[in-house]
Design a protein that fits this description.
By secondary structure, the chain is α+β, with helices and mostly antiparallel strands. It contains two helices and eight strands. The longest helix has 19 residues.
Length: 153
């Protein structure tokens, strides 16, 4: 069905992405000498979002019995807006890809004070066999849970 147009708006079907979110207060110490939140802090917020996501979907950060768990292989961050204290950010974490040995997590950092997206990025997570020192297959039941959060186009 084609979008319907009204005089001032376009109506269309919208799919709401599935994600986990966590609120994190911006600490005074998160700012650098330039008076805004330092870039390293955003990666820490991604990590906090990642760990909250893992807890919410039942991902063991290291399955001792199996010797396997997730390991961050790559991450990116696109900065859109500088942030300052005081503020609270909401980090939304979702899945954009699930492969046989890895998956990609997407992050959005939103300022509550500004009501704007301040940064977004992603991280490639490899399922890793720590005893063998090599990648391993993402367990099928975990892959299914991750796919339920997948927001790929």
């Amino acid at each position: 069905m084609a979008p319907s147009r009204t005089r001032n708006a376009t109506l269309r079907a919208v799919t709401t992405p599935k994600f986990e979110s966590i609120d994190i207060p911006v600490a005074w110490g998160d700012m650098d000498s330039f008076g805004h939140v330092n870039n390293v802090v955003y990666l820490r917020w991604f990590e906090t979002g990642r760990m909250a996501f893992f807890a919410a979907v039942g991902v063991s950060t290291r399955d001792v019995a199996q010797g396997c768990g997730p390991i961050l292989a790559r991450t990116t961050c696109n900065f859109q807006r500088p942030l300052e204290h005081p503020d609270t950010v909401t980090v939304q974490t979702s899945i954009s890809r699930v492969g046989s040995k890895s998956f990609t997590m997407s992050y959005v950092v939103r300022s509550q004070r500004l009501d704007e997206v301040a940064a977004h990025g992603d991280g490639v997570i490899v399922w890793f066999d720590y005893a063998a020192g090599a990648s391993a297959a993402v367990p099928a039941e975990l892959a299914a849970r991750l796919r339920s959060y997948c927001n790929a186009d």
